Amino acid sequence: MADEVGLDLVEIAPEANPPVCKIMDFGKYKYEVAQKAREARQNQTHIVVKEVRLTPKIETHDYVTKRNQVEKFLKGGDKVKVTMKFRGREQTRPEMGYKLLQRLAEDVAEFAFVEFAPKQEGRNMTMVLGPTKKKTEAVAEAKAARKAKADAAAETTDGA
């Protein structure tokens, strides 16, 4: 019957009694399954962990620069691993690094939450911050902002 119609005979449940078969275009079926899998992969979000390194004796301007970098990563929907490096005698004062990491967490509280609290591991103290917005939301907002900016630029060129 399948040959007469020009389709394939596909065995659906070989263990059933009697075995269940279906007449269908198997190539088309495989193509549709591949398309669904491809669509599902496109909708997945890849969580990236960015890293920012600090030292306990960081100057104010450098701290602000690093904080802005952390904010940029968090607004983009990425996680941020903040590493505090202790060198030489700085290792005897881990509380200085802990205070600095706590200050950073408070400064970016509107964009992030502390996923892993500061923890000492040898010469380094690490803390992981997670974004409050999901990556998909952040990407959609960035896209909308770029479109609005492009529209505004187009209006200014049209009016001139």
UniProtKB/TrEMBL annotation:
<dbReference type="GO" id="GO:0032790">
    <property type="term" value="P:ribosome disassembly"/>
</dbReference>
<feature type="domain" description="Translation initiation factor 3 N-terminal">
    <location>
        <begin position="1"/>
        <end position="40"/>
    </location>
</feature>
<comment type="similarity">
    <text>Belongs to the IF-3 family.</text>
</comment>
<protein>
    <recommendedName>
        <fullName>Translation initiation factor IF-3</fullName>
    </recommendedName>
</protein>
<dbReference type="InterPro" id="IPR019814">
    <property type="entry name" value="Translation_initiation_fac_3_N"/>
</dbReference>
<dbReference type="InterPro" id="IPR001288">
    <property type="entry name" value="Translation_initiation_fac_3"/>
</dbReference>
<comment type="subunit">
    <text>Monomer.</text>
</comment>
<dbReference type="Pfam" id="PF05198">
    <property type="entry name" value="IF3_N"/>
</dbReference>
<dbReference type="GO" id="GO:0016020">
    <property type="term" value="C:membrane"/>
</dbReference>
<dbReference type="InterPro" id="IPR019813">
    <property type="entry name" value="Translation_initiation_fac3_CS"/>
</dbReference>
<keyword id="KW-0396">Initiation factor</keyword>
<dbReference type="GO" id="GO:0005829">
    <property type="term" value="C:cytosol"/>
</dbReference>
<dbReference type="InterPro" id="IPR036788">
    <property type="entry name" value="T_IF-3_C_sf"/>
</dbReference>
<feature type="domain" description="Translation initiation factor 3 C-terminal">
    <location>
        <begin position="47"/>
        <end position="131"/>
    </location>
</feature>
<dbReference type="Pfam" id="PF00707">
    <property type="entry name" value="IF3_C"/>
</dbReference>
<keyword id="KW-0648">Protein biosynthesis</keyword>
<dbReference type="InterPro" id="IPR036787">
    <property type="entry name" value="T_IF-3_N_sf"/>
</dbReference>
<dbReference type="InterPro" id="IPR019815">
    <property type="entry name" value="Translation_initiation_fac_3_C"/>
</dbReference>
<comment type="function">
    <text>IF-3 binds to the 30S ribosomal subunit and shifts the equilibrium between 70S ribosomes and their 50S and 30S subunits in favor of the free subunits, thus enhancing the availability of 30S subunits on which protein synthesis initiation begins.</text>
</comment>
<dbReference type="GO" id="GO:0003743">
    <property type="term" value="F:translation initiation factor activity"/>
</dbReference>
<dbReference type="GO" id="GO:0043022">
    <property type="term" value="F:ribosome binding"/>
</dbReference>
